[in-house]
Amino acid sequence: VTSIVLLVAPSAASSSAPTHDGRTPMHGPDITAYVVLAALLFATGVLGVTLRRSPLIILLSVEIMLNAANLLLIAFARLHGREDGQVFAVSVMAVPRRRWSSASA
Amino acid sequence: MANFLVWVVWVVAAAACLSSALAVVSFTNPFYSALSLIGNLASLAVLFLLLGGEFVAASQVLVYGGAVMVMFLFVIAYLGELSEASPWSGGPSWQAIGAILAGGALLVEVIVVVGLRAGGFLSHEAQIDRSFGSPSASARSSSPTTCSPSR
To answer: Which residue of chain A has the CA closest to B115?
Structure first.
């Protein structure tokens, strides 16, 4: 599975032939599919936060919501062709580490 | 052919992502919830790879899979048995109905807003080169001294 992903990923991200308007299409689904997937993930996280009583599961569900936001950041970074969204995604990743170190302390 | 393979990988990763997120929410044992969150993070890393974010995918696996999950599992093991009743047991409660309504309302809101307001803007991807998403490009973009509108 890893080899298939590593084989496919470069051709998905960078595209081969430019179209008539100078833009190049992505392989696979376009950004709308990623937006819908992120919305579904975020709704699942909301479901977990509101449905469960255990604080551990609530924190895990907040992680799911953070990851949905991360997916949107990276999808729009790809849409606009700039790395700024990826930089923000990396800094979003640092949030649970801080929270968990303070919680465990 | 490449397009078909990308679609297959995307569908598998998206299905794994959603099902593991649902498993996180619905498992009664927090240990199993944390384990299925690992699957969620791994399939999200695959999606990041498809979007050209190699550095973010690698740091997703390293940071979440390495550090955060170890801390999660340590806290779970430290606190002992934490199992609670299944959220779906005992018939529909007001909390469950309200939670599903809130989650569904957010989902419908996002999809309606995206479908109504952003339709034309989402179909034209920018052209990227091979260095997109590499650590050096991310560092260049995050450095305040070299931040410019036209990179």
So the answer is: A32
